[in-house]
């Protein structure tokens, strides 16, 4: 019994439970992955990692026993320091007490002073409600709108696929319209207008103009919808000369009917990614006439993810109704993860083999555990309340400043992880398998390049498909190609910054991220793995030293972008170099990071020994 429980717990934290994309190459069909998942030779048959050779396990070596001792001291210390300054006994507690709310855990207060976090936490019951209601309504819809197949017809035939597509998308469009009205009220008309204009760009303009017009239009919307506070109706009416008072009154009334989420434009940036995806997928479809799965001799009911994303749908599927259903697909509408239009249409035709009841249940349990982790941190670490109280940071030690900043990054990670996981769980329950957004904990990253691949992964994949690859990717073999590659990286990350918010602080963050890429890329060329094949331990130690510097740079960049700006970063580093205590803490931190990164290396080697190379 005990072994069974332990085995079940371990299965919850398997990569395959998180997303089969992590254990199956993108070129392997999901049906084959499902058949070989329990086969001990399945990883090899599935064609996972074949390019890298895994090293022998180090978990039971004297070196790692030493690291375990460091963990036993460092990890509790990292939790204790922020907890200590969050206690009522701390003399600075009265300064930030007003930002705390009544909690439910062990008599502690809870820190929900971050407005975004407070909103997410308050909406979780509503998300669970929709997670139950929407799939049930789909079942009712199926009863009233059944698929009508000929007797003996295969459920995987093209006609059956069209019938499933019609049934699913008709419901998605219907429910999307209801959701849009409930969430945004009269602002739903603005969203519908923007969707219509974007659709006209894709379908009416000449093919060569579509990509440029799509980017210009959507970047313009991305910037102006926030500058003009969501395009208020009264603002437009005021532009009309001699507008009658009755029209102004109507505009004011419409502005007041904003639905449950009155600031629709705050979350519309995720929809903009879907608008761009549709337009570019449509444009590329016109370039690839004759590229259907059947003509490519592929089984359309068992496509690999690469084929689902890259193979265009039939032209008739690029209708406005299908586009609307995709753009407003309820489980993914507010926060993602991001699914391309081609992938959405493909999964509407044929349910992905990766969706299994046992796996979905385990994923749901994992969602609940993440939710509990967030609640635990908010009840025992009041970093947001301390920051909001504008404290005198000189009264805090370098260790306190650094670890409060460190945990603030973790709270940012958690407040993104919780809704992303819940919305993806909702989509899985509804029969759609979008990519997992968060592969690793924010603490389990040592590479700037790899961090970008594992953080908001669906967005990373979106930028690869629609920005990075169309711009030519990267090549650092010559000076000219290196300069062009840097421009490509800047274009990607400046878009990411603008997409998050129109804020100079985030632009600085994007420049810092690209600047921090360069030392890592240069180190890869200066110290290639092949030249160190005879000295693997020395190479591992050298990489770890570089990775420590990488982690310090990543913490600095994210403090600038998401944790208080340039001033916060300056205060952090000034504190670390202020006197012997700061330097001692920095030295101890580097040693702890060195040990932690060695463990991160070994985690990835353990994955490689199973034939899995996540490249992050």
How would you describe this structure to a colleague?
The structure is a single chain. This protein has 616 residues and is mainly α. Helices cover 66% and strands 1% of the residues. The protein contains 27 helices and two strands. It has helices at 2-12, 15-18, 30-36, 42-45, 62-85, 93-96, 115-144, 158-184, 187-204, 210-227, 233-237, 245-256, 269-287, 305-310, 320-327, 330-333, 341-349, 357-380, 383-388, 398-429, 448-454, 457-468, 479-500, 504-526, 536-562, 565-576, 579-609, and strands spanning 101-102, 109-110. Strands 1-2 form a two-stranded antiparallel ribbon. This is MBOAT, membrane-bound O-acyltransferase family domain-containing protein. Keywords: Membrane, Transmembrane, Transmembrane helix.
């Amino acid at each position: 019994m005990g072994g069974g429980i332990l085995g079940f717990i371990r299965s919850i934290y398997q990569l395959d439970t998180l997303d089969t994309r992590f254990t199956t190459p993108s070129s392997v069909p999901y049906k084959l992955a499902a058949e070989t998942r329990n086969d001990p030779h399945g990883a090899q048959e599935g064609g996972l990692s074949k390019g890298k050779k895994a090293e022998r396990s180090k978990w039971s070596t004297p070196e790692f026993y030493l690291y375990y001792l460091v963990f036993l001291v460092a990890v509790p210390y990292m939790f204790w320091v922020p907890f200590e300054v969050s206690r009522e006994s701390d003399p600075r507690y009265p300064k930030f007490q007003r930002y705390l709310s009544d909690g439910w855990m062990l008599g502690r207060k809870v820190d929900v002073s971050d407005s975004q976090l407070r909103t997410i936490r308050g909406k979780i019951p509503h998300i669970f409600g929709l997670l139950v209601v929407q799939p049930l309504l789909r079942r009712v819809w199926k009863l009233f709108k059944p698929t009508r197949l000929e007797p003996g017809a295969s459920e995987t035939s093209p006609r059956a696929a069209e019938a499933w597509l019609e049934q699913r998308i008709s419901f998605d469009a219907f429910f999307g319209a209801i959701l849009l009205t409930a969430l945004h009220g009269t602002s739903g008309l603005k969203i519908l207008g923007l969707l219509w204009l974007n659709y006209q760009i894709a379908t009416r303009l000449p093919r060569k103009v579509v990509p440029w017009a799509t980017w210009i239009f959507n970047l313009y919307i991305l910037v102006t919808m926030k500058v003009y506070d969501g395009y208020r109706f009264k603002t437009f009416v005021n532009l009309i000369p001699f507008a009658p008072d009755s029209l102004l009154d109507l505009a004011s009334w419409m502005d007041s009917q904003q639905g449950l989420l009155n600031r629709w434009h705050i979350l519309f940036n995720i929809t903009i990614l879907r608008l761009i995806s549709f337009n570019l997928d449509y444009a590329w479809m016109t370039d690839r006439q004759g590229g259907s799965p059947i003509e490519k001799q592929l089984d359309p009911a068992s496509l690999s993810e690469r084929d689902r994303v890259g193979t265009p749908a039939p032209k008739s599927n690029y209708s406005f109704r299908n586009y609307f259903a995709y753009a407003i697909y309820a489980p993914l509408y507010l926060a993602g993860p991001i699914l391309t239009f081609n992938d959405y249409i493909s999964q509407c035709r044929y349910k992905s083999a990766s969706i299994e009841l046992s796996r979905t249940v385990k994923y749901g349990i994992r969602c609940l555990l993440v939710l509990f982790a967030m609640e635990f941190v908010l009840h025992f670490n009041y970093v947001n309340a301390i920051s909001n109280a504008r404290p005198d940071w000189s009264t805090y030690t370098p260790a306190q400043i650094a670890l409060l900043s460190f945990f603030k990054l973790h709270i940012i990670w958690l407040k993104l992880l919780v809704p992303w996981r819940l919305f993806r769980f909702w989509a899985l329950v509804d029969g759609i398998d979008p990519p997992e957004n968060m592969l690793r904990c924010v603490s389990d990253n040592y590479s700037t390049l790899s961090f970008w691949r594992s953080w908001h992964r669906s967005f990373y994949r979106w930028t690869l498909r629609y920005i990075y690859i169309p711009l030519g990717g990267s090549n650092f073999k010559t000076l000219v190609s290196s300069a062009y590659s840097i421009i490509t990286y800047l274009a990607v990350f400046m878009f990411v910054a603008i997409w998050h918010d129109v804020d100079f602080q985030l632009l600085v963050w994007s420049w810092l991220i690209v600047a921090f890429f360069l030392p890592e890329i240069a180190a890869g060329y200066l110290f290639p793995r092949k030249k160190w094949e005879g000295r693997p331990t020395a190479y591992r130690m050298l990489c770890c030293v570089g990775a420590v510097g990488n982690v310090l740079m990543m913490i600095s960049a994210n403090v600038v972008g998401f944790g208080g700006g340039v001033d916060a970063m300056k205060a952090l580093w000034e504190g670390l170099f202020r006197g012997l205590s700061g330097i001692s803490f920095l030295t101890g931190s580097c040693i702890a990071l060195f040990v932690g990164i060695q463990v991160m290396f070994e985690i990835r080697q353990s994955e490689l020994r199973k034939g899995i190379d996540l490249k992050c």
